[in-house]
Amino acid sequence: MKLKYIYLCFLCACQLMAMGKDILILGNKSSEQKHDLRDSLTEKYVGGMGETARRMLPGTNPDWQGGILRFKMKVDSEKQNYFTVRCWGSESDNAMVMLFIEGKQLGYRHLGDYDLLHRGNGGAPCQGRFYYYTVPLPLNYTRGKKEVNLEMRSYGNTWDYGNTFEKYQKKMEGPTIGFYKVYMDVQPCFLPDKNEKQGKDEVSLAPVRPAPGIEVLNQLKETVSARINQILAKDTPLGQQEVWLLADAYSVKWTPAFQNPKVVDAVIRNIDHYYTKYLEKPAIISSDPSVYNGDWMTTCLLARSIRSLWSELQDSLEVSVNGATRRDIWSQLMIASLDYGTTHRRHYTNQSMIIDMAIYECNRALMLMNPRKALPEYQTLRYLYESLALAPWLGKETPDGPERPLGDHYWQLTDKALTKELGFVGYYGEVVDWLIHIYRATAIPGVPFSGDLKIKDQLLRVANARYNFRYPAIDEEGYKCFRAEAVVGWRDGNHYPGDVIYGDRGTAWDATPLMAAAATLDQRTVGVAQQMLEDNQFFYAVAKKLKDAGNIRVLQSYLHIPDEYELIMKQTPSEEKLPMSVSAPDYVFSDEEDGVVAIKNGSEILYASLYWRARNAVNNLAKVHYITPTFERLANVHIETKFEDSGMRYARPDWVNLGFAGWREWYKGIHSAHAGEVLPIARIPEGVKFKPGDENIYAGKADYYELKYGNYVIAINGSTDKTFELSVPKAKAVFNLTDHKKKVEEDVLKVSPRTTVVLEVR
Q1: 306-330 confidence digits (pLDDT tens)
Q2: What is the mean pLDDT of the chain?
Q3: How many CA within 13 A on the CB side of residue 33?
Q4: Long-range contacts, stretch 362-367, CB < 8 angstroms, 24+ apart
Q5: Per-residue model confidence as pLDDT tens digits over 273-285
Q6: Residue 460 in contact with residue 527, Cβ under 8 Å?
Q7: Are residues 175 and 281 in the same domain?
Q8: S-S: 611 plus which of 234, 342, 423, 602, CB 3.0-4.6 Å?
Q9: Which of 148, 177, 199 is the last residue of a domain?
């Protein structure tokens, strides 16, 4: 029996060698010895589906560094090598794991184009199934070699906004997830052996969440009412967010603020007080600690309060306050906000929207109080249009006019209505809630559906584009849901699994779960909202928001949830569903400007971002998330590109932390395996200021992208005036998924400007 077992192992090893794979089975003594595994602060255990694994541990006195695995792996001396780890999707952690080759770090800790190996966010990414994560090894470390020395080093997680090492780098206080196997292969799409255990189809078997129910709305009302009473009873001055909560609640019937004269008195008193603070410290206009992102919002929340309570406030404006009328001193606040906001506009889409919304709100309040001093309505409406890609974005105002840092023809959204920064934006691209706030800003206070119609149409286009990036999943308790795709989002550092989202990112600070449907009553947004209600994920989302009731910004969003729910419950059933729903037909969505595709092909879903974090130069890298019923793949892979070469070059610095800047290089003694790699820079349009090393939307943008991944070939032509040729792979059958699964008979396909071709090779 023992000889038979050894013989089978020998055959298996021969098969794996023939396939070009080297496999290290972690927790298996023989395999670990073969790969010269050495470890510190790790433990082996039996995990998912009874298989062995190793996880890395924190030290006895935890600091930011944890356990390490060191081992050798065989490599192909000539081809591109890919390193893959196998993990059990029911496990979770709040740790980070970096891969090292010959003592140098692979990838970057935060938002690098070469990705890090693992970063947990406390969620189990695909329960009941294994997943595989693949990253490329630099050719200069494998060329001419038969094996390499690798390390997996564990660390505590990071807080991305920390501006000191102590705030940024957290201690490692718990173990990492388990790593079951590691593989070396030359294929970008890792293909596990057919006998390797996977999971079962948890998603299609998942039950509907049974609870909570409508009782959470009563809890919400009690929580909000208690906070409003607390604020009304305060003797100390109120912050902007508190003032706006009172003013907004003045028209909400179930709150103690409803038509309460104390609310009007509190708003008047506290705007007066804010003016006193402004005289003492004019910089408070852009640095008020009582409002989030003060340099974006300025006095937006005071402006909203004035607009909401205008009928109740206007009689008090002629009252003298310290020798000037209230009308004059409040107007000064709005003018100062406009002066700051218009000269500090930003080009990242979500930031642009928020800043321009604040400009618009302040100007509308000024138009009520002092119309002669206000900016023309068309000017501030133009800012909103620029942020929403209804007009070209021209940047901040200067003495010589708009700055135009990206030229005269930069649009904040793609033609297909995705946010446009440096490729597809995942969680930060979920801007529908901000579009709704902007739409409401253009409305007459208290009059539903009276906002700007162009903005309403645009928010629906954005919502429809985002629906492609919702995929069927299960929540943390095993119930059916949809999650937002964030793996291929260029600004998403630790969003795997993505948040539970249907239409709106309802658990976000300023959002509600049904807000798009309630704001528009569009049939598709209503249908998606009803899908959330059918899965009973609405009340659960509200319950999760209630856990953050101490944050007044979150509590503010509670105000309109009960009324939104009642409104949607009155609507007739819609046939519209999310396009990745299990029962939906096969489907391909592509956005050539963002270089992203979303594919539903039978029971498989594939997301791929081919214009991937190319901030400074063309990097020939893509990010892939491939979802099947029984396992998932995540991969950072090389692709082919074509572009107009500027002749300029970018050499990667020796950075290991941020993938885009060297000003948080706190990890002394650690060096990058990518340092010195020289990349070509694409042609920069005339009139756009640029030098090598600058982050620029054009520097890393190719005209044509081609990804071969497993059975899929994806070709994206992002140019407006070029046609490229795609060579069709030789196979038994090739089908064009972007042409109704038509069988391809040609050897070469034309890829026209601003089109995408997706082939399935069988």
Answers
A1: 999 999 999 999 999 988 999 999 9
A2: 95
A3: 3
A4: 362/298, 362/299, 362/300, 362/303, 362/334, 362/337, 362/338, 363/334, 363/338, 364/303, 364/307, 364/441, 365/302, 365/303, 365/304, 365/306, 365/307, 365/330, 365/334, 366/303, 366/331, 366/334, 366/335, 366/338
A5: 999 999 999 999 9
A6: no
A7: no
A8: 423
A9: 199
